Structure to design on (449 residues):
């Protein structure tokens, strides 16, 4: 029987050469002891996870990418913590007997059986938003590994291939495009456009990919990899209160709201903070403040609409300098594609009017768009039946499963989040609910394999 608490003890004793593995695996093998040790420092919640061996994987990575300034975790594509998590995943999956490969876009696949067509694929992501929670992404990866480990330990011989998949840059925290790994895989973003994306330091995706050991010229649609997926299931902590209200630990997703990201640039006149009278200013930061209020008021007046500005960049950003421009990023979502487009049109008009009060101008540029996703009803029905009847819930949060849904039958399982809060250190899931999620995923995989 696979015992998730055992390997950590083995790692401490085995040392780097314990399996005679190659450099990458050896690195992960070495690191497992550190991961486990740091996991024990993660507070009472993580202690509960460690005590519950089923979730040892979450405890092992509890110390990776902690962000003391923001709180929670900052784990961004191919930077230190993300690389550590990738090495951890490789080591964990190989210990289960899975064969790990990195595809041309940096997504990690851990195969049970020969990679091939009609595979049952499950997984999520390991990267986070800045200052994110411990569960968004990793819960799906840890649950997938645990479910596959249980099936292997119980002697299941799959009739079709199975893989655990970790998508790259799901949150878009480094290069600005959410679900970048799945969009690249499916051809949902033009490869040249993707290669030219830059991070906050001006590093392009192409440069970052090369540093991570990928060939930047091979980034982009990967028809062969996509053709191997028969269906995809993503388990995810719920990012809302649906399951709290229902009093249930697990649900199947029905749909994802249409959503997108836009860059709002407010332009004014940079000038001296002391030498410019108040009446002579065209201050884009004050105009941006009005614009943000206009965003809020416009969305609040529409049923089911959501609009957020969560990020600002003030140029040049000096205490004694009136800014010359401000970049703000708008995230907007509504119940249908048309409703979301209407919302953004109304926001554009309201923002134009608001910034004019300060003699400024504004432009809104679309950076990404995902239409409403209705998950495969046949697959959702099959999953619901296999689980003996669970509720179905829509979600306002985007996911890689939503990107894949346009190409292969896809489904999601949500695990209750008792705080109802996500993309924040307060995101949480009770151990019992995480276990219920793993058991549901195991049941589904068993029924599909
Ligand atoms: Zn997520």
């Amino acid at each position: 029987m696979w015992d998730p608490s055992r390997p950590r003890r083995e790692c401490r004793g085995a040392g780097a050469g314990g399996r005679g593995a190659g450099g990458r695996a050896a690195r992960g093998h070495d690191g497992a002891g550190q991961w486990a040790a740091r996991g024990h420092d993660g507070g009472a919640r993580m202690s509960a996870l460690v005590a519950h061996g089923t979730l040892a994987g979450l405890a092992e990575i509890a110390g990776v990418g902690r962000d003391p300034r923001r709180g929670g975790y900052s784990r961004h594509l191919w930077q230190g913590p993300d690389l550590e998590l990738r090495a951890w995943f490789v080591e964990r999956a190989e210990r289960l007997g899975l064969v790990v490969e990195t595809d041309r876009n940096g997504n990690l696949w851990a195969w049970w059986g020969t990679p091939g067509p009609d595979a049952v694929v499950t997984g999520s992501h390991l990267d986070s938003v800045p200052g994110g929670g411990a569960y968004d992404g990793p819960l799906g990866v840890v649950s997938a590994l645990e479910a596959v480990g249980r099936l292997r330990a119980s002697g299941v011989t799959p009739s079709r291939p199975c893989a655990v998949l970790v998508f790259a840059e799901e949150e878009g925290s480094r290069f600005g495009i959410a679900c970048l790994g799945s969009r690249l895989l499916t051809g949902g973003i033009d490869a040249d456009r993707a290669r030219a994306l830059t991070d906050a330091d001006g590093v392009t995706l192409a440069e970052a990919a090369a540093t991570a050991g990928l060939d930047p010229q091979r980034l982009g649609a990967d028809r062969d990899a996509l053709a191997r997926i028969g269906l995809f299931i993503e388990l995810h902590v719920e990012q809302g209160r649906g399951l709290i209200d229902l009093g249930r630990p697990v649900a199947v997703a029905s749909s994802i709201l249409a959503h997108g990201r836009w860059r709002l640039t407010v332009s004014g006149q940079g000038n001296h903070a002391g030498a410019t009278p108040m009446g002579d200013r065209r201050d884009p930061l004050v105009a941006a403040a009005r614009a943000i209020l206009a965003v809020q008021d416009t969305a609040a007046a529409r049923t089911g609409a959501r609009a957020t500005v969560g990020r600002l960049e003030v140029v040049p950003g000096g205490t004694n300098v009136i800014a010359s421009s401000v970049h703000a990023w708008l995230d907007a979502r509504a119940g249908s594609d048309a409703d979301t487009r209407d919302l953004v049109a109304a926001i554009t008009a309201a923002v134009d009017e608001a910034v004019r009060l300060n003699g400024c101008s504004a432009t809104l540029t679309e950076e990404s768009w995902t239409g409403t996703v209705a998950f495969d009803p046949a697959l959702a029905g099959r999953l619901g039946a296999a689980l003996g009847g669970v509720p179905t819930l829509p979600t306002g949060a985007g996911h890689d499963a939503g990107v894949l849904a346009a190409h292969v039958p896809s489904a999601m399982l949500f695990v209750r989040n008792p705080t109802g809060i996500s993309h924040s250190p307060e995101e949480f899931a009770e151990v019992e609910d995480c276990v219920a999620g793993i058991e549901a995923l195991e049941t589904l995989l068993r029924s599909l394999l």
